[in-house]
Amino acid sequence: MTESKIADLLSKMNLEEKIGQLNQYFSFGNFDAEIIRKGKAGSVINAAGALTGTGESKSSDAETCNNIQKLALDTPHGIPQLFGRDVIHGYRTIFPIPLAQSASFNPELAEQAASIAALEATATGIKWTFAPMLDIARDARWGRIAEGNGEDPFLGAQMAAAVIKGFQGDDYSAPDKLVACAKHYVGYGTAEGGRDYDAGEVSEPTLRDIYLPPFEAAVKSGVGTLMSAFLDLNGIPASGNRRLLTDVLRGEWGFDGFVVSDWDSVVELIQHGVAEDRAEAAAIALHAGVDMEMVSGSYIETLAASLQSGKVTQEDIDEAVRRILRIKLRAGLFDKPFTDPDRATRDLLRPNSRTLARQFARETMVLLKNEDDLLPLDSNFKRIAVVGPLIHARSELFGSWSPDGRAADVTPLGDALKQIAPAGVELVFADHADKATHIAQSTDAIVLVVGEYPYRSGENSNVSDLSLPPGQAELVETVAGLGKPVVLVVIAGRPLAITKQAAQVQSVLYAWQPGIEGGAALGEILFGLEAPSARLPVTFPRATGQVPIYYNQKNSGRPIRADGPFKSRYVDIPNAPLYPFGYGLTYTTFEYANLKLSSETMRGKLEISADVTNSGKRAGNELVQLYVRDLVGSLTRPVRELKGFERVVLKPGETRRVSFTLTEEALAFTRADGTKGIEPGKFNIWIAPNSQSGLQGDFKL
Ligand code: GLC
């Protein structure tokens, strides 16, 4: 049905109408209805402005989209418009940033949040979101680490599948489902120096085994579209790379949706120095596999002439049109092109959407330190000082890419804490040091809230130094010197090198940018109504100079653990990170014991299990992690690789036997000959609470 409809449409379309479908229109000022009337656009982007989308911007609305749609349906073939927008971690109900969502290690929750985002965005006429962002990041200086799922391909692939399922459901022609867009294909996080848009170099095996897996998972999940990245990857700009955009994406993975360029990435091929002019840039990109061109207009301006001159072929153009029509048909736009204008009042900011946002915020906050079990703050703490530059935070809790979030929807952080604080507990507030010094003497504990403002991470927002923002280290120093127990709460879009500050305080709770309900969620954790359960999806460096730093590193010939003076190390700080991937505390403790393997030799698959016991006084939620190490390969292999995780909730004293099934397929990697597969040999295996400890076993493949 779809394919025959596509063939029928294509046979009736003239060249100008075909090229019109390949153009995405962004009105930089007032909307030019002629563009739509004349079929010169296949999609309208309602962008929040490319500057990281942190500012509130004019949201979409059903009426506007319906009026544009009417113009589109009046064109000769009545091909409907596809309205796109960056709905990255919520539309009006803003959820924690994606990096925080990954810390929950809870794909099911991420799916539910994406489903709510789809409900809200489609209520305003949006049908296509430029999300999820799947770029693996090993360098926290890069501002866009905030938007992805951290450093691990296994976790990244799980989150990709879940979020796409949430956005698209099983059938994205449903009125409350969106077409998703896996971005930025591929390797964007390798930008040198953490400088957004800069060039990246990565080996083919690393590209295959680290950066591509989340995108392959997205394609397997049926994602409708991908977005090609800005960067120069290994000398070939990602938006002009036919091997990746066609041979891999379509040839190997069978992707049959369409690829949209990222903003001006097609015409940026000129800056990259691989195209002389706009016509050549457009021809390279189209032939590489970029089907729709976002906003620069190079396709609509040059493809007709390029076809005449032989720069592009009719098949290049026709195939791109087929892919776009295919997604529009699957999105149900031909049958249901309009949005019910009454939906917005019903579907935006529903109470249960806020409830989910609060749960998600709670499940993303990572407890990094808790000396003397200072947290949760119990009834001994009657008067608590809440100090710092973010204690009145509202939209600061949203983080980057939250253009439809509104500060007015957020209870300021301090007020939310007040609402949650138990009866009899008094909170006193001080947003700067000398006021804090003044009130501290009369309080029993201090909650110090520091961190980043939204525009300090996200697109085009990189830092050369991972220390706290200017002035905050001094504030921590002052507050820590007041002789009161201090809980440091960090609001941030990236890991920060808080080594000194962590040593100065009793407890550290990393809240990331927790979204619309972040204040209440923080209160529930601080006062023990809920216990923290998140784990780090990304390694925390001691110092900026350690970056790039990540758990699944190679061993080198002189690893830090080896004997002798000559080894891979710094003379001024330890190699080890401040906090490792997978790490996080809660309000109880867990013991791991009795590791068992179903066999010492794997044939097809292996069962591995261990006892996990809650050895503390409170119920707890533990993320049990499964890691392997391939000891000898045709290429060097990582010292650890995450291959599974499972949550267990245990009462005090309760023991649960947790087991995993490891398959041979999970041990496949890109070998020296470039093929993907397994190699026989010895392996280590761990069931562990994080990437640096756990019970170790051995097996042979
Ligand atoms: C931006 C971003 C991309 C976003 C697009 C549309 O430059 O790189 O992630 O989806 O433009 O706003």
Give the topology.
Blueprint lengths: L1 H11 L2 H7 L1 E3 L7 H5 L5 E3 L16 H12 L8 E4 L12 H6 L3 H16 L5 E2 L23 H16 L12 E5 L18 H8 L1 H8 L4 E4 L3 E2 L2 E2 L4 H11 L5 E4 L6 H5 L5 H11 L4 E2 L3 H12 L4 H17 L12 H5 L3 H14 L1 E5 L12 E5 L25 H8 L5 E5 L2 H8 L4 E7 L20 H9 L5 E6 L7 H6 L2 E4 L7 H9 L63 E8 L7 E10 L5 E11 L10 E10 L4 E9 L5 E2 L5 E2 L4 E7 L6 E6 L1
Helix pairs in contact: 1-14, 2-13, 6-7, 6-16, 7-9, 12-13, 16-21, 17-21
This protein binds alpha-D-glucopyranose (GLC).
Alpha-D-glucopyranose binds next to loops.
Architecture overview:
- With 701 residues, the chain is α/β, with parallel strands linked by helices.
- The protein is globular and about 75 Å long.
- The protein has a six-stranded mixed beta sheet, sandwiched between helices. Strands 4-3-2-1-10 form a five-stranded parallel beta sheet.
- Helix content is 29%, strand content 18%.
- The protein folds into three domains: 2-345, TIM Barrel (Alpha-Beta Barrel), CATH 3.20.20.300; 357-540, Rossmann fold (3-Layer(aba) Sandwich), CATH 3.40.50.1700; 590-700, Immunoglobulin-like (Sandwich).
- Residues 47, 50, 86, 130, 183, 262-263, 459 line the site of alpha-D-glucopyranose.
Highlighted features:
3 domains; 701 residues; 6-stranded mixed beta sheet; TIM Barrel; Immunoglobulin-like; alpha/beta; 5-stranded parallel beta sheet; Rossmann fold
What's the average pLDDT?
Answer: 96
- Please identify, by name, the CATH architecture of the largest domain: Alpha-Beta Barrel
What's the helical proportion of residues? 25-40%
End-to-end Cα distance, whole Å, is: 47 Å
Q: Tally of extended strands? A: 25
Name the CATH class of the largest domain: Alpha Beta
Shape: globular
Query: What is the overall number of helices?
Result: 21
Q: How does the major sheet shape up?
A: 6 strands, mixed
The CATH topology annotation of the largest domain reads as TIM Barrel
- Strand-residue fraction? 15-25%
Structural class: alpha/beta
Task: Kindly report the spatial arrangement of strands forming the biggest sheet.
Answer: 11-16-15-14-12-13
Name the bound molecules: alpha-D-glucopyranose
Number of domains: 3
Low-confidence stretches: 49-54
- What Rg do the Cα atoms give? 26 Å
Instruction: Please identify which CATH superfamily of the largest domain we are dealing with.
Output: Glycoside hydrolase, family 3, N-terminal domain
